[in-house]
């Protein structure tokens, strides 16, 4: 099954207040394996970048000034997304901005039925734990040492690794059934005459106490005062 793991960077938190998407990064995954195909783009938001947002992702007005508007790249983005499920962390946020931008340039919104939220998956698998991308990467041993600032493509790559862990871990795609079939085939082709079937005879080990051992034991027991088994009249 083909899935797209994606992340966005924006000018703020709410498209209804005029905030815009400035970056999107998408990773293609087939049968929970990253294929190496991705889509990445920056967009000119056509509005000033708030200082607080720039501190998060480092995208300045100057950097974005020569980038295309979202509408100019909408068709190529939609072509990459296709009809695949879309996986995001706190997905309602990213879907909100994606659909706002699509509607802003006259394209139909992406159906919310395609949304897969890794926050919801993590909440079920790790109840009570911190659910930020950083915290979950630490929990699952995903290296994020190169993540100095937020970046849509980098965060999508981290999220793809996290999604694998949340949906079965690295055992997915190992082809265990095929490996078992190969093993059975090899066993069937094995020359049974080459298998060692002769057993080496070894005499049984003696487990009974010798007379010397019995004498030493009796001498030791005689030193015990008020032994319970002697009081009850039971013998050793």
Order of helices and strands: EEEHHHEHEHHHHHH
In total, how many beta strands?
A: 5
Low-pLDDT segments = 172-197
Largest sheet: 5 strands, mixed
Describe the structure.
It is built from ten helices and five strands. With 236 residues, the protein is an alpha/beta fold. The chain has a five-stranded mixed sheet with strand order 3-2-1-4-5, with helices on both faces. Strand 4, helix 4 and strand 5 form a beta-alpha-beta unit. Helix 5 runs parallel beside helix 7. The longest helix has 15 residues, at 152-166. The radius of gyration is 34 Å and the shape is elongated.
Structure summarized in a few sentences:
With 236 residues, the protein is α/β, with parallel strands linked by helices. The protein is 41% helix and 15% strand. The chain has a five-stranded mixed β-sheet with strand order 3-2-1-4-5, with helices on both faces.
């Amino acid at each position: 099954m083909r899935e797209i793991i994606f992340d966005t960077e924006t000018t703020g938190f709410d498209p209804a207040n005029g905030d815009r998407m400035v970056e999107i990064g998408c990773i293609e995954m087939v049968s929970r394996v990253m294929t190496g195909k991705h889509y990445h783009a920056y967009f000119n938001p056509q509005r000033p970048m708030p200082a607080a947002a720039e501190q998060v992702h480092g995208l300045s007005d100057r950097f974005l000034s020569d980038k295309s508007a979202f509408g100019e790249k909408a068709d190529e983005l939609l072509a990459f997304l296709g009809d695949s499920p879309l996986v995001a962390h706190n997905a309602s946020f990213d879907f909100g901005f994606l659909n706002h931008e699509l509607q802003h340039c006259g394209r139909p919104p992406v159906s919310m039925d395609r949304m897969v939220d890794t926050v919801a998956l993590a909440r079920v698998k790790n109840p009570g734990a911190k659910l930020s991308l950083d915290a979950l990467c630490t929990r699952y041993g995903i290296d994020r040492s190169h993540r100095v600032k937020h970046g849509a493509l980098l965060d999508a790559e981290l999220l793809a690794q996290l999604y694998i862990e949340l949906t079965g871990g690295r055992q997915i795609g190992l082809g265990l059934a095929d490996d078992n079939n190969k093993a059975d085939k090899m066993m069937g082709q094995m020359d049974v005459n080459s298998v060692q079937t002769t057993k080496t005879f070894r005499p049984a080990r003696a487990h009974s106490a010798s007379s010397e051992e019995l004498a030493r034991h009796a001498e030791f027991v005689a030193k015990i005062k008020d032994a319970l088994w002697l009081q009850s009249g039971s013998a050793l």
